[in-house]
Every structure is written in C-alpha cells, then in structure tokens.
Amino acid sequence: SMGGFGAMRLGIKHSHMFRAISSVAGGPFQETFTDVAEKNESLQIKIFKEVFSNDMDYFVEQSPRNIVQLYGPQVAPTFKIRQIIGTKDFSFGHNRDFHEYLISKDIAIRYYE
C-alpha cells in the first residue's frame, strides 16, 4: 500500500522523469488521516504514528492529493497512470475516491477494480 502511495506521490511530482506509474492497493489516499478504513483501523493508526509522526499537516503535505494539486497541471497527457484495487480490500473506498479525484483534475488514469 505504501508503495502505491509513493508511486503516486513521486511519480506525479516528477512526471517529467517517468513514463508511467502503477499503484496496486495503494494508500493512504484519503484526504485526512481521520478518515480511516474500519477494517484496518489499527494498522492505519500505526502508519500515521510511525510514518507521519501523528502530524496531520505533514500527512496532508505529503499526500498524493496535495501533490496532484501542486503538480497535476504539469502532467503530460502521454504520462500513464495505472491503479488497481480489489473490491474487498480495506482501502477500496479510498482508492475509488482517489481515482475520481484524479479524473476531476483532468488526469488520465487506467483504473481497475
């Protein structure tokens, strides 16, 4: 999941250096870390503490959503983004929401459930 988070964050931020990125069951993609997936709340609390130092501002700054806001307009139409998520994965809803967010920002994506 964190690999998909990193792929989206770094790939979109540095889209001039890559031709494509892929995220499989990636995340966290939610807007804030207060919106946790019920099925895996304890893991998300641990990730928030260990990766983001329980700092919501830092999470928001590093989040792929923020990166899209800052760097999305620079993403070339030829840049390929693939996102894959299982419908029973605990992060399914957050992945679907992030996909819709990318579409709302006119960023082309191949999305598979």
What are the defining features of this structure?
globular; single chain; 113 residues; alpha/beta
Structure description:
The protein is an alpha/beta fold and 113 residues long. The chain has a three-stranded parallel beta sheet. Helix 1 runs parallel beside helix 4 (64-71). Helices cover 46% and strands 12% of the residues.
Strand-helix topology:
Elements: H1 2-13, E1 20-24, H2 41-52, H3 56-62, H4 64-71, E2 80-84, H5 92-104, E3 110-112
Parallel strand pairs: 1-2, 2-3
Mean pLDDT: 90
Strand content: 5-15%
Largest sheet: 3 strands, parallel
Give me the secondary-structure category.
alpha/beta
Count up the helices.
5
The secondary-structure element order is HEHHHEHE
Task: Provide the spatial order of strands within the biggest beta sheet.
Answer: 1-2-3
Low-confidence stretches: none
Distance between the termini: 15 Å
How many beta-strand segments?
3
Task: Give Rg in angstroms.
Answer: 13 Å
